[in-house]
Specification:
Radius of gyration: 22 Å
Number of domains: 2
Largest sheet: 6 strands, antiparallel
Helix content: 25-40%
Structural class: alpha+beta
Distance between the termini: 75 Å
Strand order of the largest sheet: 4-3-2-1-5-6
Number of strands: 16
Number of helices: 5
Strand content: 35-45%
Length: about 260
């Protein structure tokens, strides 16, 4: 009996060592990889499968990873998207990657600016008669904007596609209060689609530095957490938010 008890204790200790000696990579699509992370650089995460540590070194794009939980319990989160800005090479690279998506957030109004977010990350402030060109991964995504109101946009994005979202002012409760609406555009919209295309082709996108993005994410962390919790627990079931569907994909040659 004593021997069995000792063996049981040894098994539990061994099991705990196994469970807590692995890194877990959480993907943006919800999948998990049990791994031993070897190296992280500006674009890729290099790892070995936890059960095949003598096997080959594998690479995965940082843009496909939401976070890593390391064996010591610490957590490292990764940005779920990035601005492409004015870098033509990054734009060309995104065209050749089947999992990447480009979303254009277009502000066609005058005297109007809005803070934009992608899930739990700050994207930037889109100003009057400007646009932000933003790259993220395909699949289910959540975008939102903050002004007098908080407006959310669910998205089912197809890899290799581009999408346009009109950051649209809507009058609400009197002349002085203006709410934001995130309005997906497709070619059958004859009012705003041509104006959005004209703006994209005539101007360079806004660029917000990585330093400013990091600063704002730190400053707004509590604000972001509170509003995402309200979305999940209150607004999601009560309000009729718009959705980008994969069939609203815009051919990229129309935006070159």
């Amino acid at each position: 009996m004593k021997t069995k008890k000792i063996l049981s204790i040894c098994f539990i200790v061994l099991l705990n060592n196994v469970l807590f000696s692995q890194d877990i990579i959480y993907m943006t699509d919800g999948n998990e990889i049990k791994a031993k992370v070897v190296e992280i650089d500006d674009s890729d995460i290099k790892y070995k499968n936890f059960n095949q540590q003598e096997g080959p070194l594998k690479n995965i794009s940082r843009s496909l990873v939401f976070m890593i939980k390391y064996q010591d319990g610490s957590i490292e989160k990764f940005s779920v998207g990035t601005q492409i800005g004015n870098d033509p090479q990054k734009l060309r690279d995104s065209y050749s990657t089947k999992t990447e998506v480009i979303v254009y957030f277009v502000n066609l109004a005058r005297g109007w600016k809005v803070d934009l977010f992608h899930q739990d990350q700050y994207i930037g402030e889109v100003k009057s008669k400007e646009y932000i060109r933003y790259q993220c991964t395909s699949g289910n995504n959540l975008f939102w904007a903050s002004t007098e109101n908080k407006e959310f946009l669910t998205a089912e994005l197809e890899g290799g596609c581009s999408y346009i979202v009109y950051v649209r002012p809507v009058k609400f409760s009197g002349f002085w209060k203006v709410h934001v609406e995130l309005f997906p555009l497709s070619s059958d919209n004859k009012d705003y689609y041509p104006k959005a295309i004209k703006l994209i082709k005539s101007k360079k996108p806004l660029y917000i530095s990585k330093e400013e993005i990091t600063k704002m994410n730190s400053k707004l962390r509590s604000f972001i957490t509170i509003n995402l919790e309200k979305y999940e627990n209150e607004w999601k079931g009560k309000r009729n938010f718009k959705n980008i569907s994969s069939n609203q994909c815009i051919p990229r040659n129309e935006l070159d």
